[in-house]
Every structure is written in C-alpha cells, then in structure tokens.
C-alpha cells in the first residue's frame, strides 16, 4: 500500500504554556473521508489549524507531512497555494463586505492552474445553485446555510487535493445539513480527500470512512466508522447511548 | 459672489492635498488597525523625491536629451515619483512595523513617530537646512472663468486628484489585490487560508498610500514650491485629522474628511483673522467629533474598507 497522503506524528499544540493537543498521531489516505470527533475543547480545531499552519504553534517533536512534503516548512498561505490543502474554518469566516462572486474570485488569488478554474466554478455552481443565484449579493446578507455553502465553495476553489472542515454541520438545520454532506460527498467523489472535525458524531461517522475520537487532547479510539458506530464507548459518550 | 467661487477653488485645492494624504492613513488603518504616524513624513520624503525627479527630468529637457512638452514632463514626473514613493511606504512597513506586527498597537504608534523624526532629521542631515525650490514643471497660467480667476495649477490639482480617486476605486474593486485589501479589512486573520500572502497585501497597501502621498507631494510642490524637511509634520497631522473626521479606516470618509477640512480651513481663513485660522477650524472639527466620535463614515467597532 502506498504511504498516506497526510501523516501527522506527535502533534502537540500550545497556546502560550497551555497544551491543547498532547502528542497525537494519525494519518489520512488519498481519497478518504476521515472524521475526528470529540467534545467541545477536545482539541479538534487546534488539530486542523496545525495542519494548515494557521494561528497555532506546534511542539518541537511534531512531524507532519503531506504527500511527502514537510508541512512545517510551509507558511500558511503556501500550504494552500502550493500543496492544495483548503480549510473551511470554524465560523465560516466568509467576507461579508464582498459579494459572493468576489469571495470566490479571491479564492483564485494563488491558483496557478488557470485552465482548471472554469471546471471548478462549474462544479461549485452545480453543487450550490443558490450561490449562482446570489452571486452579486453581499455575502454578509446570505443566510447561515448559504454562508456555509459559500465557505465550502471558496475552499473548493482555493485547493482541491485535501479539504479540512471545521464543524461543517454547525448551525445548520437538519435538512440543510443533509444537503451539505451530500455536496461534500460529491466533492470527495471528484477526488478531494476530506478531513473533518465534528461535535455531531452521529452525522460525521455516517459520512466518513474512518474516524478518530479525540478527548482532552488525546486520541483515544480509531477505526472504520462502521465499527466506531457500534463501539459501546462511542455510543455511550457521543451517540446518546 | 465671485469671492465665494474663488474660495471654493481654494478649498478644493487644499482638500485635494488632505484627501490624498488622508487615504494613506485610512487604508493602512483599515487593514492593520494601526495609524501610520510616519505618513506625514512619507509625504515629505516623497515630495523631495518628486523634486529630484523633476529637476533631473528638466535637466534632460534642457540638454535636449528628452524632447517632451511640459504636460508630458509633468505626467512623467508624477508617475515616476508615485512609483518611487511607494517604496518609501514599503520600506517603512518592512523596517518599522513588520517586526511589531504582534506587539501592542501603542508600541507601533510610538515607533511610527520615531520613524517620522528619523526621516525629518535624515533629510536634514543629507540635504542640509536650506530650502529647496520646487521647479515649475508647468508654466503658471491664470484663466478667467466669468468673474473668477483660477490658476491652471488649481485645476490640475483637482483634476488629477479626481482621476487618482477614480483609479483607486477601480483598483480596490476590480483587482485581486484590491479585493484582498477589502477582505483583509473585514477579517484580517483568515486571508492566508485562501492562499493569499498577508505581507504582500500589507506591503501593497503601504505602497498605494505612499504613491498617493507622492502625487500629493508633486501637486503641493507645484503650488507651494518651498520644500523643507519639516513640511510633512503639519500637513501630515492635518490629513490624519481628516482621516479621523471621515471615519477611521473608511476610504470614502478619508476623501470626504479631506475636502471638508479644506473647506472649513478656507472658510475660517476667509472670514476671520488669519492667525486664528487653525484654532477656529480645529475647534469646529472637535465639535463635529464630539457628536460623531467615530467620524462621519466610521463604524463603532470595525474599520471596514468601504466605498
């Protein structure tokens, strides 16, 4: 078997002197959907941010490689522009003062493969036709669900090799959540590896191929999601018994 | 009546200088939440650069190595000066502000003041205390429009300012760097996640502000052709006041604030003893800020780049 696309070893994340992630190791294979589930404060967001090299500092023993490249050598914008890892951050963080179209255009800033842009825009508007309808509207006037669509669309345009998703289900009504995960599955089918972190364990484990369980900065369980869904500990702690 | 029309032109001319310089404060503030207190001195250095560019080009023309009419000479001087001045802003950011990016804003503000003094004394040391006379790039002419007299320099200043404002608008709204500037003013931190190098956008913002200060320097030098190393202090502070009056971080506000400040100053100068001009003019500004503490177009908690 070929080596995993993303390998994370001994990941420690510090905020000042406080250690939020305690030396975890995991991997993601190309084409997979991997979910990290855990409660609030377990270190999920820190883990994703560490991979993006965004906003957090990692410990000295941490090793992270993506397709053989040492992630620690890349500044955050190059993780996106050179490695093709996109990140949908917690809280969506779309630019409310720009139009939908401008938000998407901005995502092309560092794209070198201009010839693929049309394909990607077509895919985005195919997945989220609502965004095409609202392309000239200020993003700040979109509903919460539409903003989440825009955040995913924007990530899809910035980089397609791997997408990191921080709580994509947050704040979405059940029906919208179903739509969102269907779109993400489609994105995965078109070749983008997906790593998501979720509090909504049920949704995440039904969606992903493999899963990890993160508790107060440590990985306590891992496995195929169909096994995790049957695991008594997961059932007890995350799936409501 | 003709007196009023005359003063309107004076106000528009003064307002043009303030607006062009105020933009530099506002654009940087909208992105970094930082007032670049060295900007008045960036304007001064840019004016000196303009002086050397103008003198150099005039020398070439005199030696008949550069057969250009005076309008082309003016445009060339302006463009070259704006280009060179942009590097002054880039350098100030790189040397003074970038190392303090995560430091308290007060440290950066104090550093800005120091950098300003450094530039003033640096120019003084390099060029001496004697004043430089900005050469006349375009022979002054006075036109009569009905009952009022207006110089070609006033028309040029106003026209060039309006042109630059239109270009700035197009740049901010229709280029990726402009979009990135607006995005960054909305959510500074998230910009790298789109593959956009933050430092490039920040450098570009400083460059843009300094280029506009360079344009202001040329237009100012042509109208008030005496340069000295401290010329940027007062006009810099006044443009800063214009930026505050317009609303911190608001591009539109900086322009309106600049022209408004020019209008208030000229209004007071036309009706009161000249020694009281700034006292009364800035009392009016204080009064406005009492009722609108965030300026005319400022928002309470954010400084979004708006137009």
Describe this entry's structure for a reader:
The complex is a heterodimer of chains A (241) and B (307). Chain A is 37% helix and 26% strand. By secondary structure, chain A is an alpha/beta fold. In chain A, helix 6 (144-158) runs parallel beside helix 7 (174-189). The N and C termini of chain A lie far apart (37 Å). By secondary structure, chain B is mainly alpha-helical. Helix content of chain B is 71%, strand content 4%. Chain B has 10 helices and 4 strands; from the N terminus they run H-H-H-H-E-E-E-H-H-H-E-H-H-H. In chain B, the strands form 2 sheets. A two-stranded antiparallel sheet of chain B has the order 1-4. The chains are: A alpha/beta (241), B mainly alpha (307). The interface between A and B is medium-sized, with 29 and 20 residues.
List the helices and strands and how they pair.
The complex is a heterodimer of chains A (241) and B (307).
Chain A: E1 6-15, E2 18-28, E3 33-38, H1 44-52, E4 57-58, E5 63-66, E6 69-70, H2 76-81, E7 85-88, H3 100-106, H4 117-127, H5 129-133, H6 144-158, E8 162-166, H7 174-189, E9 193-198, H8 201-207, E10 210-215, E11 218-224, H9 225-230, H10 232-238
Parallel strand pairs in A: 3-9, 3-10, 7-8, 8-9
Antiparallel strand pairs in A: 1-2, 1-4, 1-5, 5-6, 10-11
Helix pairs in contact in A: 3-6, 6-7
Chain B: H1 2-32, H2 39-62, H3 70-97, H4 105-127, E1 132-133, E2 142-145, E3 148-151, H5 152-174, H6 176-186, H7 198-223, E4 226-227, H8 231-246, H9 251-271, H10 277-291
Antiparallel strand pairs in B: 1-4, 2-3
Brief sketch in words of this structure:
The complex is a heterodimer of chains A (241) and B (307). Chain A has 241 residues and is α/β, with parallel strands linked by helices. In chain A, 37% of the residues lie in helices and 26% in strands.
**Quantity of strands of chain A, as a count:** 11
How many structural units, i.e. domains of chain A? 1
CATH level-1 class of chain A: Alpha Beta
Strand portion of chain B, in percent? under 5%
Strands side by side in the biggest sheet of chain A: 7-8-9-3-10-11
Low-confidence stretches of chain A: none
Order of helices and strands of chain B: HHHHEEEHHHEHHH
CATH T-level topology of chain A = Rossmann fold
Distance, first to last CA of chain A: 37 Å
Q: Using CB atoms under 8 Å apart, which protein chain pair has the greatest interface? A: A-B, 29 and 20 residues
């Amino acid at each position: 078997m070929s080596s995993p696309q993303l390998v994370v070893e001994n990941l420690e994340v510090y905020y000042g002197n406080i250690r939020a992630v305690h030396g975890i190791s995991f991997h993601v294979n190309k084409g997979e959907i991997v979910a990290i589930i855990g409660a609030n404060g377990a270190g999920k967001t820190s883990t994703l941010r560490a991979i993006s090299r965004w906003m957090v500092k990692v410990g000295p023993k941490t090793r992270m490689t993506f397709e053989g490249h040492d992630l620690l050598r890349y500044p955050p914008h190059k993780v996106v522009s050179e490695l093709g890892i996109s990140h949908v951050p917690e809280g969506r963080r779309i630019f409310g003062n720009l139009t939908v179209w401008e938000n998407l255009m901005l995502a092309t800033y560092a794209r070198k493969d201009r010839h693929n842009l049309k394909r990607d825009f077509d895919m985005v508007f195919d997945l989220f036709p609502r965004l095409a309808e609202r392309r000239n509207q200020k993003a700040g006037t979109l509903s919460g669900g539409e903003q989440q669509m825009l955040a995913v669309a924007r990530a899809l345009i910035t980089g397609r090799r791997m997408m990191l998703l921080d709580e994509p289900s947050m704040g979405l009504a059940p029906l919208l959540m179903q739509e969102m995960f269907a779109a993400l599955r489609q994105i995965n089918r078109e070749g983008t590896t997906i790593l998501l972190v979720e509090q909504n364990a049920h949704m995440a484990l039904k969606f992903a191929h493999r899963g990890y369980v993160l508790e107060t900065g440590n990985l306590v369980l891992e496995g195929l999601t169909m096994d995790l869904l049957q695991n008594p500990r997961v059932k007890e702690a995350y799936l409501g018994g | 009546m003709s007196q009023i029309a005359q003063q309107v032109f004076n106000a528009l001319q003064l307002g043009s200088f303030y607006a062009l310089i105020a933009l530099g404060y506002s654009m940087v503030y909208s992105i970094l939440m930082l007032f670049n207190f060295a900007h008045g001195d960036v304007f001064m250095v840019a004016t000196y650069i303009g002086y050397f560019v103008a003198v150099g080009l005039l020398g070439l023309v005199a030696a008949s190595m550069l057969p250009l009419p005076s309008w082309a000479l003016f445009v060339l001087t302006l463009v070259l000066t704006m280009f060179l001045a942009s590097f002054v802003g880039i350098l100030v950011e790189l040397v003074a502000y970038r190392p303090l990016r995560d430091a308290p804003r007060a440290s950066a503000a104090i550093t800005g003041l120091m950098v300003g003094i450094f530039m003033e004394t640096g120019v003084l040391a390099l060029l001496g205390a004697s004043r430089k006379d900005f050469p006349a790039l375009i022979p002054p002419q006075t036109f009569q429009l009905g009952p009022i007299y207006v110089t070609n320099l006033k028309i040029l200043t106003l026209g060039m300012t309006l042109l630059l404002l239109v270009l700035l608008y197009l740049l901010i709204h229709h280029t990726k760097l402009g979009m990135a500037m607006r995005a960054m003013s909305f959510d500074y931190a998230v910009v790298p996640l789109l593959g956009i190098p933050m430092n490039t956008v920040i450098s570009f913002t400083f460059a843009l502000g300094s280029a506009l200060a360079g344009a202001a320097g040329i237009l100012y030098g042509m109208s008030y052709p005496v340069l000295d190393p401290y010329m940027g202090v007062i006009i810099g502070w006044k443009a800063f006041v214009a930026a505050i009056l317009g609303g911190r971080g608001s591009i539109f506000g900086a322009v309106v604030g600049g022209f408004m400040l020019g209008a208030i100053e000229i209004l007071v100068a036309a009706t009161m003893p000249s020694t009281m001009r700034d006292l009364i003019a800035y009392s009016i500004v204080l009064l406005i800020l009492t009722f609108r503490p965030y300026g005319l177009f400022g928002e309470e908690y954010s400084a979004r780049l708006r137009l």
